[in-house]
């Protein structure tokens, strides 16, 4: 059962600063409590991550996953699941829009677990991811780029 969510929030930083924080995927465990370990396996010529292996733990389940990132300058970043011990599918994206002296961030996420998981647990895991994207990323960016 795939579940999708979106969330929009503002960060008091430029799109370039927000994207720099997003591109620092090796620092995900600093602002996302669900990310336990992150290893960048390959990068694009500009140095941004391409393939990333990570250990994620949410709602008591630990997942070893590999994702591929795609970048559109400082406008957007998306990822898609390549392999996972716990999921059939995961697609996510950050889209950034300048708004005055801040950046509007649109975050979307779709997940589909491999094993039968009660719907309320899938929604709880997704809610955790969405909240982490909003609160954790905002705090990380605003503290890192002041």
Radius of gyration: 15 Å
* Gross morphology: globular
Structural class: alpha+beta
Question: Distance between the terminal alpha carbons, to the nearest Å?
Answer: 41 Å
Summarize model confidence as the mean pLDDT: 89
Helix-strand topology string: EHHEEEEEEH
Helix content: 25-40%
- Proportion of β residues? over 45%
Which regions have little confidence, pLDDT < 50, spanning 5+ residues?
none
Task: Figure out the total of helices.
Answer: 3
- Please count the beta strands (DSSP E, at least 2 residues each): 7
In spatial order, strands of the major sheet run 1-7-6-5-4-3-2
Question: How would you describe this structure to a colleague?
Answer:
By secondary structure, the chain is of the alpha+beta class. It has three helices and seven strands; from the N terminus they run E-H-H-E-E-E-E-E-E-H. A seven-stranded antiparallel sheet has the order 1-7-6-5-4-3-2, with helices on one face. It is globular, with a radius of gyration of 15 Å. The model has no long low-confidence stretch (mean pLDDT 89).
């Amino acid at each position: 059962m795939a579940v999708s969510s979106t969330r929009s929030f503002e960060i008091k930083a430029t799109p370039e600063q927000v994207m720099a924080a997003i591109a620092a995927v090796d620092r995900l465990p600093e602002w996302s409590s669900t990310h336990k370990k992150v290893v960048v396996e390959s990068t694009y010529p500009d140095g941004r991550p391409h393939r990333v292996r990570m250990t994620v733990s949410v709602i008591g389940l630990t997942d070893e996953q590999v994702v591929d990132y795609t970048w559109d300058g400082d406008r957007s970043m998306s990822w898609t699941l390549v392999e996972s011990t716990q999921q059939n599918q995961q697609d996510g994206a950050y889209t950034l829009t300048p708004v005055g002296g801040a950046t509007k961030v649109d975050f979307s996420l779709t997940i589909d677990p491999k094993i039968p998981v009660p719907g309320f647990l899938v929604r709880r895991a997704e809610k955790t991811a969405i909240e982490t994207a909003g609160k954790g990323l905002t705090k990380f960016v605003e503290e890192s780029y002041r």
